[in-house]
């Protein structure tokens, strides 16, 4: 199931991922991308589109990757108290 977004299709193909996964599979995929394991109930509460096939929820892997990318881009950037900003370091020399 090609998404039409080249980099996304390459990730899915190189990782040998199926095009869709159930809610538990979605939690596993997201755990690898986000660095923590969400529960399947948490995945259900997040704004990720899915289809109901029979009585099972099926998530497109491309939607999971896109959601994880968005969360990481929107995450605040923090530094420790002893860290200096890279722009400060370049002007000090």
Structure summarized in a few sentences:
The chain is mostly helical and 93 residues long. The chain has helices at 6-14, 23-34, 40-45, 61-74, 86-91; strands spanning 20-21, 51-53, 56-60. The chain has a domain at 20-75.
Descriptive overview:
51% of the residues lie in helices and 11% in strands. Helix 2 (23-34) runs parallel beside helix 4. It contains 5 helices and 3 strands; from the N terminus they run αβααββαα. The protein is globular, with a radius of gyration of 18 Å. The termini are far apart. It has a 3-stranded antiparallel β-sheet. The relative contact order is 0.16. By secondary structure, it is mainly alpha-helical. The chain has helices at residues 6-14, 23-34, 40-45, 61-74, 86-91, and strands spanning 20-21, 51-53, 56-60. The protein has a domain at 20-75.
Main attributes?
93 residues; 11% strand; mainly alpha; globular; 5 helices; three-stranded antiparallel beta sheet
What is the chains' assembly state? single chain
Task: Give the ordered list of helices and strands.
Answer: HEHHEEHH
Helical content stands at: 40-55%
Q: What is the CA-atom radius of gyration, in angstroms?
A: 18 Å
Number of helices: 5
Query: Which strand order does the major sheet show?
Result: 1-3-2
DSSP summary, beta strand count: 3
């Amino acid at each position: 199931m090609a998404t039409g977004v080249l980099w996304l299709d390459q990730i899915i193909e190189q990782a040998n991922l199926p095009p869709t996964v159930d809610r538990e599979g979605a939690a596993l995929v997201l755990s690898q991308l986000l660095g923590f394991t969400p529960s399947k109930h948490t995945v259900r509460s997040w704004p990720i589109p899915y289809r109901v096939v029979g009585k099972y929820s099926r998530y497109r892997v491309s939607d999971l990757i896109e959601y994880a990318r968005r969360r990481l881009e929107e995450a605040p950037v923090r530094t420790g108290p002893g860290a200096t900003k890279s722009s400060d370091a370049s002007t000090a020399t």
